[in-house]
Fold each of these.
Amino acid sequence: MRYAVISDVHSNLEAFQAVLDDASSAAIDEYLYVGDVVGYAADPKACVEMLGSLRPKAAVAGNHDWAIAGLLDLEWFNESAKEALVWTKGLLDDAEVDYLKRFQIVYEGGDITLVHSTLENPKRFDYVYNAGEMRRTTDLMKTTVCFVGHTHVAGIFSFDGEKVERIRENRVKIDQARRYVINVGSVGQPRDGDPRASYAIYDAATGTVEMRRVEYDIAAAQRKIIHAGLPPRFAVRLSGGY
Ligand code: ZN
């Protein structure tokens, strides 16, 4: 079974479509979703619909999904993010909002866990960037692999029972004696300096995880953000990947 693990689409249809095209060329059987299909960019409806049509095997909520679902206060967000959320909520119909409401906060199944931020307090949506802080999740994991998103910074972290280390390679063979926190990065708004859409492929049969980056039509996504009257910063940052 080969899974595409996607997170932080953030209403960027061009990036989402490019990732799905790449995934279809990579013999993907199932999708796993790690949160934040909406927020920031101009195509929330189309992105929610596309996610639904993938029928992900498991789906966990991001903070933007929860805000739209009415499960997280808008005060949690900065002004421009809030502005995009209010705009997004105005476009989605009840069925689409209901769909976002149904995501789990943590998924544990087989040998994998999905959570948008951390296992320590998944409803608080803390931002965890460095290896040391990953212990907040590795200590609580019941599975070998945990996929996360939220920071929009892709990275593989490995825990040997004593310390967590960031792995530099973009492919890892899972060692069952270890635990792994894998941030799959962001499909629609990467913030790790690489503007290409980010996702991961997990091959359960070979026990490997591969991080993928995919080029997409950034200018088209930017034009739509500007045209929709959303904060221009959300367009500008896409070309720099920050
Ligand atoms: Zn996000």
Amino acid sequence: MKSIRVFLVTVILSIITLFIFVAALKGYQSSMAEANRLFDKQLLDTATLIANLHTEKAVVRFHQHSTIAFQVWRHNELIASSDNAPEIKISSLEPGFGFNNFAGYRWRTVAYYNQLTEDWVLAAERTDLRDALAEEVILEAVWPVLLGLPVLGLLIWLIVSRGLRPLRKFADELGSKQADDLSPLTYHADYQELSQIGHSSNRLLMRLETSLLREKQFASDAAHELRTPISTLKVQLHNAEQNSTTDNKSIQELRDSTNRLGHIVEQILDLYRSSPDQFNANFKRIDLSALAQEMVAQKYPHFEKKNQQVEFSGEPCYLSGDHFALSTLLQNLLSNANKYTPIGSHINVSVHQPEDCIKLTIEDNGPGIPENERESVFQRFYRVGGDRHSTGERGCGLGLAIVKHIVELHDASITVTDSRFETGIAFTVSFPLIRSSGL
Ligand code: ADP
């Protein structure tokens, strides 16, 4: 994957390095020009000095490694020279500077004409001295740059990382959104560069929200509209049953299907009503323990029908909640325990208040739910084993989705674990305690 950070660091570092090298080169060139001027002036001074010494025939012994050589020519006769100079002229007899090769080296030469004595003084200096100086100048200029480049790279890396931080925070804001949270993003507002991506994302979120609302509204409207014909159907079926003289199996099946259809429609309506963004919750101080007992009592005929033992344990536990929503939650969990556990099974309902929350647990010794499906059962229309449920129980897979909505509405959490029986499942809902400033 490409990285903006690596791209920026590489490009910035390359440009800076290029600029530094060009600047160093220019600096080197101008300092070398200046140094050459000085060397040349020194060479000319040397030649002038020699010319003014009224030299007579002489050979001056120089140090073996001397970098300077000279000759004095009078009327085309060499009258004096340093011992490292050749016999032939080391430069043409024309005033000014030049280059020449002798004694195995390259030399910078100067010719100086003394009008009084009519002498030509030819002086020369080895150029390798200047080259050594040039090398030194280049190294002096380039070393600090080479050493500083890693530090500069690190600095640029840190600065670019700092510059990209808003992008990361924006991504965090987007990433931390819950699946159903379509509220607009806000972080980009402070940054010009992020505003376009922020506005586009918000427009997308708005479009999503509108289509989601439309979908929900459609489901709710459709369910609502279906209620009346289903009720009519039920009445007509009842009449047909009354009028039928024989035990009509088809009518019975028709009644079962109509009841199921009615249940699905009611569940869809419940799901819509209980979704946190639709629900106009009326939060009150509620004793969850009393409410659970009430719901168990309401469901009792169903438990009795299957000869199921229901045990309740609990103490008064007050929370801030919506009565209708909490009743629906209890109803769905109890109804599942009743539906999915066999005849004669055990069901425990408990409401307790450990230190930091209120816990409602409904557990049974039925078939349980495989571990890898315990999260999925909260999805809409999900049923373990699909529509052909192993227990043969009818349902539409919406009950636990409704429970989840209600849990979210109360800032609570729900877990699905093994029950304390040998088999079976336990649903535990943890509600937050009422804050002292609350109800
Ligand atoms: P429905 O009961 O209409 O199928 P739910 O959303 O209430 O839909 O439940 C989803 C699935 O979770 C059920 O189909 C069932 O397979 C499983 N389930 C829920 N409660 C229990 C339970 N107490 N024991 C075993 N399975 C359960």
Amino acid sequence: MRNTHFSSPSRSIPALAILPALLCLALPESFAATRDTRAEKPNIILILADDLGYADLGCQGSEDIRTPAIDRLAETGLRFTAAYITAPQCGPSRAGLMTGLNQARFGYYENHEQSGLPPRAIAPTMAEYLKGAGYTTGIVGKWHIGLEPEEPDKEPWPAAPWNRGFDYSLIHHGGSLFYFPFGRNYEQMLNVGRDPRMREVKEGSDEVNYRMFEKDAYLTDLFTDLAVSFIERNAEKPFFLYLSYTAPHTPLQAKAEDVAANDHIPEGPRRVFAGMMTALDRGVGRVREVLEDNGLAEDTLIVFLSDNGAPTSQNASLNDPFRGVKGRVLEGGIRVPFLVSWPARVPAGEVRAGPVGALDLLPTFTGVAGGKLSDHLAYPGRDLTAYWASEKCKPEPRPFVWKWRSMAAIRVGPWKLIDVQPGQWSLKGGSLNDNGLYNLVGDPRELRPRQREATKRADELRDILNIWERRHEQSLETETAVGARKRGSPQ
Ligand code: CA
């Protein structure tokens, strides 16, 4: 895999550190020799939680949030302790996740629901790659990276998932929805900007249906039902399912029995949040169950993560031990739970210290599917399969960068530099106080900033960040055209 994003100073990345990664290149082949036919194209399920904090899974150490089914992913697979998404907010994070490119490459900084992604010719989605590799692709849940164009008659919803590689879509397009969306007055729902209707496009169809469901349907369970149906319909062939729950994003609404099941927690928002997590966990359990019922559990790769850190004061989730919340580039806003289960290929019960990122998933999924990444783009992510197989195959040190609103941050090794410029959002969040150079090993809560202007280390990180920012100012269209010319490909 190429990595031309960072012509960083060599002093930042010791050359010797690259050697273990080179030795690891042979590992996937040795695994391939033992694989059966089905495992050559494993099913892939990406489960995304929404605003789930780092602390709130049993396997992450929570003592009050009970998630036995999600914990089982860690017991049968890997748990990462330093996994990052690309923005501390839903839309931009998902835009990065789906394209494998930092969303700053295409100026996606906000939750505009009509922003959309660059065209497929410029930046294919994960689903487009997997569909191209022979997978049946489906999304159930929250999309939130564009839907209708501003002038609907001119283009047929170019940003909708059914036009971005998904054979099956059952989505709502916004950032959140009531959890009992169909039991209230429809006009009231529209007045608060939350259209409860689900847009559905079935496999083999171009027709968009607006679906309503039972009045007492609970959103998390509904998404699980539809995900299970997708798996059952497609059990005989390789599939990719993007199961994008809204839980545990606000509003805090849970089923009465799920709240009651958490009466070990004092009455209040935290108990309702726990009830929402009970439904999310039940969903993951049901997905596992339908895989087992269909003999697919061994050869299905499941990745579970959250799209950003928790807004702790809003949804009562916790980012412990980290400081910072959704909307900030402290670890609490950007470091998320990240679990990988793939019994046929991934060891059970191991922990990886990473760091890894959401941008690694597109190249990893495309690799395990037997697909091929575009030659025209320099993807920053890595195929993680060798690292999944062995702790010894950790990817070479590389920068992780966040650029969101007026905030920027970069991590290289244990060092992290936060640079928040004065601006509307930074002042609102008080995050100017976050500025500084931190050593995450000795100071994971980012409480003791070094004097960043006075240290050589800070200057090195600043240099890499500046290169990154200049690189990301270049348009993707230019990169694609230049890449095509260099390789003699048609433009
Ligand atoms: Ca979110």
Amino acid sequence: MEGMLIVANWKAYVDTQDKAKKLCALAKRLSTRIKRVKIVLVPPAPFVGILAKNNRSKVRIGAQDVSATTVAADTGEITAQTLKNVGAQYVVIGHSERRKRGESDADVVEKVRRTLSVGLTPIVCVGEKERDQDAQYLRALKEQISAVYAPLSVPERLKVVLAYEPIWAIGKTGEEAIHAGDLTEMVLYIKKVLTEFLMGKSVEKAVILYGGSVEPENIRALAGGSGVDGFLVGHASVDEGMFSALVVALR
Ligand code: PGA
């Protein structure tokens, strides 16, 4: 296993500064101990600046969403520039929990562009709702990936981190997550789809994450040989014991 990227998507689980700081301190300790793992913490928006301030560790801070706009008269929006100004380096875009609330592929593309234009790294989530016998889910996934990559320029495409998150596997227990063999197949399939948008070697360099019920018990099996470059971790990233155990499991 090469170096692994762990993106801790805290969702709305963390609601106090105290808890945010504790989890951040833990991530910092883990990142000094386990050198091959790079941790990106993705807290709720109000904590982004707090955690990024004076951060001299290897831990990086990201946001869970970004505005598709840059205009100033837009109440409630958080622009990519604002996120950059408070020290974020990554932005999760198109998470299924945002898409469920009406975010479209076109919104996702716009958000990716805004994010890249200020020099932040977009982590774009894609993933099928369910599996079917006729493998329609493969087509659905391909359409989702194409909808994001096609409008982007090649230099933009190269900077996207792609997170494969099958919706049926999100928020379950590790036992209900994808199996390692299936993940290997999906990573190959995603790379095949990406060959339409990226040239030869850059497909191999594309960073592909898996998300959906990653826990200490399954992370090693999912990492070994599947071809993923890391994980987007939800519920297990806000439990100190689980989070340490899953990072240590990648040692
Ligand atoms: P989960 O969430 O690890 O709780 O399944 C993953 C995600 O939605 O990013």
